[in-house]
Amino acid sequence: MIAIVDYGAGNLRSISRALASQGAEAVISGDPRTVGSADAVILPGVGNAGHAMDTLGRLGLIDPLRAVVRRGSPMVGVCLGMQLLFGHQEEGGGQGLGFLPGRVRRLAGPVKVPHMGWNRARMVRDGQFGEAGDERDYYFVHSYVVEPDDPADVLAETTYGEAFPSIVGRDNVVGFQFHPEKSGAAGLALLAVIAAGGTGFGRAAASHPILAPLGTGAGASSAS
Q: Which of 88, 115, 179, 208 is catalytic?
């Protein structure tokens, strides 16, 4: 069973319908026990990262999410959910979940923000989502981008004023900066990998950052 985390931020039913179309059993839940015992977890999200972290903490969901990552079950972040997989958030100096080492910052360059609409993602590494050089179009809505500490965690890149990671992954943790549930057949193909119980999204780390204490003081970041 795949748990779609309900913390008041995201297109939950759209994701649920997309997973169902790929034969997956999914439940929308904000219950810590349900989330913590799921076979896989999808963390969606739009809006403010600081508010999102505060809400996850208030609902008692942070420890269950950490437990999912520790035991090796798939943890999937979508849009803001992908950004929450990382640590430092630029605006407000707050902290995300810290499952992947790196930071989140605002999009740079002479472009309109938020980045909204269809854009192309190019795979930069072979993996479950394609081979290096493969290109697919996905639907984006975001103002912030991630900067992984380790370039090996970047699985695909997109250009909008600058090149930025649009798919990241390490071990059982993966993030999509775009919305796969809004991206037609290309997005459904990614969700099919999740529905099939895939893991090993990126290289295996010698030690996982999730084992370190979670950062404190999530600030009022509007990352999305």
A: 179
Reply yes or no on whether 181 is catalytic. yes
Which whole number is the average pLDDT over 162-181? 97
Indicate which residue of 88, 115, 142, 181 is catalytic.
181
pTM of the model: 0.90
Whether residue 8 is predicted with pLDDT greater than 60 in this model: the reply is yes
pLDDT per residue as tens digits for the range 114-161: 999 999 999 999 999 999 999 999 999 999 999 999 999 999 999 999
Q: How far is CA 126 from the centre of its chain?
A: 19
**Which domains, and CATH codes, for the chain?**
2-207 (3.40.50.880)
Distance of alpha carbon 50 from alpha carbon 53, whole angstroms: 5
**Sequence-ordered list of residues with C-beta below 8 angstroms from that of 23, at least 6 positions apart, any chain:** 195
Question: For this structure, is 179 an active site residue?
Answer: yes
Based on the residue annotation, tell me whether 79 is a catalytic residue of this protein: yes
Q: Select which of 51, 79, 142, 208 is catalytic.
A: 79
Asked if 136 and 176 touch (Cβ cutoff 8 Å), the reply is no
Q: CB under 8 Å to 187, separation ≥6 — which residues?
A: 18, 138, 139, 178, 179, 180, 181
